[in-house]
Amino acid sequence: MHNLPKLEYAYNALEPYIDEQTMKIHHTKHHQTYVDKLNVAIKGNSYLEKKSAEALIRDLNEIPDSIKNAVRNHGGGHLNHSFFWQLLKTNIPVSVELSKVIKENFGTFETFKEEFTKAALGLFGSGWCWLVINENKLEIMTTQNQDNPLSQGKVPILGLDLWEHGYYLKYQNKRNEYIEAFFNVINWDKVEENYNFVNTEF
Ligand code: MN
Fold first, then answer.
1. How far is the CA of 165 from the centre of ligand 1 (A)?
2. What is the number of helices (H) and of strands (E) in the chain?
3. Nearest one of 162, 136, 173, 180 to 17, comparing CA atoms
4. Which of 62, 126, 175, 200 is the most exposed place for a label (fewest CB within 10 A)?
């Protein structure tokens, strides 16, 4: 049984970059719905019921066809949002260590930010923009809907929700302003933790 994770901060903690009402609806309504629909999809399959959302999404090809789309969309939604909430915090600068890794992969931090922003703006419709580890290199990529890079064997360390439900109340059609605001609330300590975890794992 999957459950909605509690946020480790108040709904207004990311103001003015991400507003309280958006955070509240996003967490209690949108994320809750992904959790509920995932639980419905895997109900009665005792093997799948025991798996984490991460394992379900990593091993999507083993999901029976009859529920594959539901697990992909709602399991992905649950996984992506659980990941996303932990990536948000104000005033967490990039550490010297992580900064070095970003520079090794992108040249400068500004280049990384430009490439991430370009990719995020270029995504048509709903989806996510990611910073992933792929064969020991950092890459920027986007996915449609609630797809997660794990299903392609890539490991995300940073992700941005580009569904309109994540920004429309405050930013309407101005996705560029939302992306710019996101750079003020990235919890770089968490990104670094994700990076180090992956590097230890593999
Ligand atoms: Mn969302």
1. 6
2. 11, 3
3. 180
4. 200
Query: How far is Cα 123 from Cα 104, in angstroms, rounded to an integer?
Result: 25
- Cα 78 to averaged position of ligand 1 atoms, centre (Å): 9
CA 161 to ligand 1 center in whole angstroms: 6
Instruction: Give 152's contacts (C-beta < 8 A, 6+ positions apart).
Output: none
Query: Per 3-state DSSP, what percentage of the chain is helix, strand, and coil (rounded to 5)?
Result: 55, 10, 30
Q: pLDDT by residue (tens digit) across 167-189?
A: 999 999 999 999 999 999 999 99
Q: pTM value?
A: 0.96
197 Cα to the center of ligand 1, angstroms: 25
Domains defined along the chain, listed by start: 20-85 (1.10.287.990), 96-201 (3.55.40.20)
Distance 62 CA to ligand 1 centre (A): 25
pLDDT tens track for 120-163? 999 999 999 999 999 999 999 999 999 999 999 999 999 999 99
Q: Give whole-number Cα distances, 74 to 19, 32, 36, 81, 159, in Å.
A: 24, 10, 8, 10, 17
**How far, in Å, CA of 53 to CA of 37, rounded?**
12
